[in-house]
Amino acid sequence: MAGLWGGRFTKKTDDEVFAFNESLTFDYRLFEKDIEGSIAHVVMLEKQHIISLEEKDAIVKGLITIKNDINEGRIEFSHDYEDVHSFVEAKLIELIGDAGKKMHTGRSRNDQVALDMRLYVRDEVVKVDELLLELLKVIFRIMSENLNTYMPGFTHMQKAQPVTVAHHFGAYFEMFRRDRDRLSSIHKRMNYCPLGAGALAGTTYDLDRDYVSTMLGFEGATLNSMDSVSDRDYCIEFLAALSTIMMHLSRFSEEIIIWNSNEYQFIELDDAYSTGSSIMPQKKNPDIAELVRGKTGRVYGALMSLLTTMKGIPLAYNKDMQEDKEMTFDAIDTVKDCIHLFTGMIDTMKFNDAVMAKSAMNGFTNATDAADYLVKKGMPFRDAHGVIGELVLYCIDNNKAIEDCTIEELKAIHPMFEGDIYDAISLKTCVEKRLTKGAPSPDRMREVLNIYKDYLN
Ligand code: ARG
């Protein structure tokens, strides 16, 4: 094992201790960020006359070579190194000799890892946001095409009032729009550069932290060196935002699973996004939706895990914090896959309009509208609620829908019913008359779609 800190030690690390302690097996994925941060650091060191121009040039050139060699498979991550930072430094010294030993001047792995992780997470926040934007575009397309596609709206999983596919999908548009908003506020809050914090108390070198921060695209340098090396709030906030995205995807998946079931048949998933059964030939299973729903658990797990890891850590850096990586990486990979596959799945699924419309008419979804009809004729709402309750009971006993009753039957329940009741409680009226802001009437939905169109462009 190549030593970063051999000087004080007389004995080699025990092999099992080394294996338990090392992080290269998972933090290797920070190597590009590690190199990017090191380049900014040495450029600043030269500007501040802490290293020479020749040394800076040799280090930068060496680091770029190492990056290309890793990317093109000429260098492999060999597990004799403790972490990605020691690996890159050792490779640099191997490649360029003594100048390489100056790279770490005025720096600690504590501020280095804080920087690398921040750079990595910052990119991933943007990538997740881009995937959400793709998902929103598909939801927008489905909404635009289904302003008049009726379906039942549910409360307590019981049919409640008719809505449209556009309206139902619009609810998810709102959720994912809020998710993007959360990501943008996380990006803003985390965009400060921790490099220059040293191990915990800054350094005695005349570092220009603002210069490094600008080079790396940060808003500024962090203001407290102890916080800089021990802050993982941005990981926790990101995991919380990812958990919320998964919660939304999971609810949506649950609905798709229900809609795809034999009992509902509201939608049909594309063959490319479904799987079969090894024994039952008739099966077409919504595995993708089920997996998205299932994977929500591991993303929540990552959030709980990091919150718990961080809760007892005194200032400043402690090795516990190395535990931020595996779960965060896993959660990021999982959520990106889920958003991407979910987008493809809904983009290709088909709606069974007739089945949904029929279902929207059953189950007395127009009962509220029937009560409102009586209210418009002058009856107080609470009385109308009672009359329609009686009417529904009559219909259940006689196995028919409200609109199937003759005018005589209706008048027998209450004389206020007249011939115009049928139009007042038709599916079309029930949807089109729901004109409140945010309601499913196509006229209102068109206004919302105009707002979404601006938002997406
Ligand atoms: N591998 C470490 C981590 O991920 C890097 C920082 C190590 N610093 C230290 N003082 N041991 O947190």
Which features would summarize this protein structure in a list?
457 residues; mainly alpha; Fumarase C, Chain B, domain 1; Fumarase C, Chain A, domain 2; Ribonucleotide Reductase Protein R1, domain 1; 3 domains; two-stranded antiparallel sheet; two-stranded parallel sheet; 19 helices; 61% helix; elongated; binds arginine
Q: What is the H level of CATH, i.e. the homologous superfamily of the largest domain?
A: Fumarase/aspartase (Central domain)
* Low-pLDDT residue spans: none
Named at the architecture level, the CATH assignment of the largest domain is Up-down Bundle
Number of helices: 19
Beta strands, count: 6
Q: Ends: how far apart? A: 53 Å
Bound small-molecule species: arginine
Structure description:
- The mean pLDDT is 96.
- The relative contact order is 0.10.
- Helix 6 (109-145) runs antiparallel to helix 7 (165-190).
- This protein has 457 residues and is mostly helical.
- The two termini are 53 Å apart.
- The protein folds into three domains: 15-105, Fumarase C, Chain B, domain 1; 110-358, Fumarase/aspartase (Central domain) (Fumarase C, Chain A, domain 2, Up-down Bundle), CATH 1.20.200.10; 364-456, Ribonucleotide Reductase Protein R1, domain 1 (Orthogonal Bundle).
- It is elongated.
- The strands form three sheets. A two-stranded antiparallel ribbon has the order 1-2. Strands 3-4 form a two-stranded parallel ribbon.
- Helix content is 61%, strand content 5%.
- The protein has helices spanning 15-21, 24-27, 31-47, 53-71, 84-96, 109-145, 165-190, 209-215, 225-230, 233-259, 287-311, 324-348, 353-361, 367-376, 381-397, 407-413, 421-424, 427-432, 442-456; strands spanning 150-155, 158-164, 192-193, 220-221, 267-268, 350-351.
- Arginine is lined by residues 23, 27, 83, 109-110, 113, 317, 319, 321-322.
- Residues 23, 27, 83, 109-110, 113, 317, 319, 321-322 line the site of arginine.
